[in-house]
Give the backbone structure.
Amino acid sequence: MPPVIVKDLSVVYNKGKTTALDDLNLTIPDGEFCVFLGPSGCGKTTALQCVAGLVQPTNGDVKIGERLVTSVANKTFVRPQDRNIAMVFQEYALYPNMTVAGNMSFSLENLNYSKEEITKKITDVSTMLGISHLLDRKPAELSGGQRQRVALGRALVRDPNIFLLDEPLGNLDAKLREQVRFDLKKIQRQLKVTTIYVTHDQTEAMTLADRIVLMKDGKVVQEGTPNQLYRTPRSMFVAEFVGTPKINFLKCKVELKDKVPSFQYGNSAILGTTELTSQLDLRKEYVLGVRPADFYLVDKNEPGALQGKVELIEPLGDDILVHFALQQERFVAKLDAILEEQIGAEIALKVEPQNLHVFDEVTEDRVN
C-alpha cells in the first residue's frame, strides 16, 4: 500500500478570514495506522477531506504513493472516485432498501466486477468482519455495531489503497465501541492498508494508532507514537489532551538546594532531577505536570510530601481515583485499590523526580 505525502497544505475560508489548515506537512508511511487527534475545529477532518479529494485546498500538494492527486500550483486535482480510497463516516449511510450484501456489492457492480468476483469479495470480507450471517438482512434489522461493520465491509471490498475514517465509532455505546475498535485494529494489521483515522477521543487514538498527529488551530502541535505523546509532551496542551485522567498542573517557584532544583508549591518542596539545573531560570515560575498514576502514597511526615484534603474516592476495580484539594486547587491521583483503607480525610503524596513534566509558565512549552 502506498504512503500519503502532504506538503504545505493550507485551507482558508471566508475570503481569508478563517484558516482551517495552516501549512500542513506530513508523511504517512506505507501500511501505517495514523490518527489525526484534536479538539473540534482543529482542522483534522479538513485534512482528511483534502486527502480524500472532498475539499480542494487553497495551497499545497497531496500525493498518494508516486501519484500527485492534488496540487494547487500545478492545477492538478484527481476526483475522489479516481483516487482508490475508501471512507467510513460516523453516520453509516447505508442504503435502507438494500440488504447487507447489496450494500457491500453496490460499488463493485458500478466498477463492473463480475458476479463471481463480487461473491468472493463479499464472502471474504463478511467472514473477516463476522457478519456473514447477516448478508440477507436490511439495515433496519441490524444493531448499531452490526451497521458499522457493514459500513466497514462496504469500504473494504474495494481493496482501497488508503482507508479514511472520520469519527466512525461516535454513534456506538461504550461496549460496542471497544469491540469495534479491536476489530478495526486487527483488520488493519491483517490487510496492512494505510489508514488515516480522525477522532477527538484520545482513548481511541492511544489504543489504535501507530502514530498520532495531534492538531490545534490548523497546525500539528506534536506527532509521534502514543507513548511519546504521553511520556514526553512538548507543551501543556499536549500533556493535558493526552492521558486519562488528565494530568495535574502545579504552578511553582524554583530554587536550588545542593545544586538540585526544588519546586516550591505551598509548604511543599518537590525535588527535580540534576539534569534540569542548567535548563532553569531561577527568576521565573514553572508549571509542573504530574500524571495521576505517577503519584504514590507516603507518610504524612515525609519531607516534601504534598499534603492534601481528600474530597472524593472513585473505585475503578484494581485502582482508585483520589480527588484531593491542595492550596485551594483540585488534583487527582490514581492509586492501587488496596491502599483505600489507608486513606483518611488527609493524604500525603510524592512523585519521583524523573516523572515530573516541567513547562515554562509563559510559553507553556516543555523544559525537560
User: Anything to note?
Assistant: The chain has eight helices and 21 strands. The chain has two domains: 4-241, 248-360.
